[in-house]
Design a protein that fits this description.
single chain, about 210 residues, alpha+beta, Jelly Rolls, Arc Repressor Mutant, subunit A, two-stranded antiparallel ribbon, 8 helices, about 50% helix
């Protein structure tokens, strides 16, 4: 499917005049997997809407990371939106989880569009509600779930998002995204394997029970 068609489908629920403004002033960009597109302290110049692919948003403390949420097709980054409107530096990192096509909305135009077109406010408030729920889920998992459940749920979500099983991923990568140590992941992974839930391969992990 042509990129312009995908962009039009992504924006189809918005006011036609707003769509025309977005199409005239925004850029569609193809971004390779594992590309850092935003880091802490950076001022936001563009706000992405994902057309295809996947972006992960995370925080980092010292050498540990914690995955906050994914930006899927037809979604955007509410934290980038909030930082841009307040003209504040970003408090999160964002990288492409896989090859991604994104529509990049210029911040200076978005500020004007929020005043002219109520539709765009609806778009980002929907994103806010979605991200708020996801962040609450993340906090709940950290506070109340044992690591074996956190790890298993993490693998299920990543397979669902990427449509790939087995996953090509290391224990260190998983540890970074779950905010723990590699040794902890290795120990818990052995437990899940013993329970028949996963199979550890040379270059990845296969989920056996879904």
């Amino acid at each position: 499917m042509a990129i312009n068609t995908k962009v039009s489908q992504t924006l189809s629920h918005l006011n036609a005049n707003l769509v025309a403004e977005i199409m005239a002033n925004s850029v569609t960009k193809e971004i390779s997997q594992n590309t850092e597109i935003l880091k802490v302290g950076q001022y936001v110049k563009v706000i992405p809407i994902v057309i295809s692919g996947l972006i992960k948003v995370f925080t980092r403390v010292e050498e540990k990371e914690l995955l906050l949420y994914y930006i899927r097709p037809q979604e955007s980054c509410i934290m980038s939106f909030a930082a841009s409107l307040k003209n504040e530096p970003s408090s999160v990192f964002a990288t492409t989880e896989e090859d991604t096509t994104a529509l990049l909305l210029p911040v200076d135009k978005v500020e004007n569009w929020t005043k002219q077109f109520p539709d765009i406010n609806t778009l980002f408030f929907q994103q806010y509600n979605l991200r708020y729920s996801e962040l609450l889920d993340t906090i709940h998992h950290i506070l109340f779930d044992k690591m074996d459940k956190r790890l298993y749920d993490y693998l299920r979500e990543k397979i669902s998002l990427t449509n790939r099983n087995p996953l090509t991923i290391s224990h260190r990568q998983i540890a970074n995204e779950l905010g723990t140590a590699r040794e902890v992941i290795s120990r818990v992974m052995k437990k899940l394997e013993h329970e028949g839930k996963v199979r550890q391969l040379k270059n990845g992990i296969e989920l056996l029970m879904r």
